[in-house]
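Bug report

Summary: structure tokens for Tryptophan synthase alpha chain differ between web form and batch submission.
Environment: batch mode, default settings.
Steps: 1) Submit the sequence below via batch. 2) Compare with the web form result.

Sequence submitted:
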Amino acid sequence: MNRIDQRFADLKAQGRRALIPYITAGDPAPEHTVGFMHALVRAGADVIELGVPFSDPMADGPVIQKACERALRHGVRLADLLEMVREFRREDAETPVVLMGYLNPVERMGLEAFADQAREVGVDGVLLVDLPPEEADLMGPVLKERGLASIFLVAPTTSSARAATICAHGEGYLYYVALKGVTGGAAADAADVAEHLAPLREQTDLPLCVGFGIRDGASAAEIGRVADGVIVGSALVNRIADNAERPEAIPAALEAVLGEMRQALDA
């Protein structure tokens, strides 16, 4: 069983919600990323989304755009990120890792080469923001053959027909975007999220995880009441940016933010 599927099965048996943090690989410098990943696990992360730095992250707001810029200034490439996962796996063989980014770096590496290396270093899933489900038949089988889950986004504006296509191709979990717009926007509204998740539950058995607008323990707990998991990115990336000049302080800052969310979700 894929580590993602196993983790969600365990959480369901425990009656708990998944906590999924996102950070950008290589931000503020590549030598710190693996340490940050371990800090997230200590704070209660169930799955880690590791962002692939990209020059034009169209779905991301200013916070994550700047994180990509900081990483790219160090020349961080997809191949470097895969080596970070390899290093992470030397100490952690259990926490699922999902690579989140855009199609261009994967195409430059070559789909099969990427999938082979991702499997070999211990990646569990791939979420490519600009890969439409209509083209998933090109990539999905290559990933599936290697035990890698294809994870997709669903937005508030997604039609029911398109949502059905996404659900048919999705694996691991479904990432529901709580807000119209980009990351780092307003707080998510639990009632609105619940209204949109209801029809999705009729179309898929995949865990429904909600991102965009999760800022603190209170917002995590509110969304956790209606979703199977919460995804937090900008709130963590902000802490990295605030401490970019003293990276030794970042693990504790990440643990403080994520730890509050873990306690709120479990409560």
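Above is the batch result. After comparison, the two runs are identical; trailing whitespace caused the diff. The radius of gyration is 17 Å. Confidence is low (pLDDT under 50) at residues 181-185.
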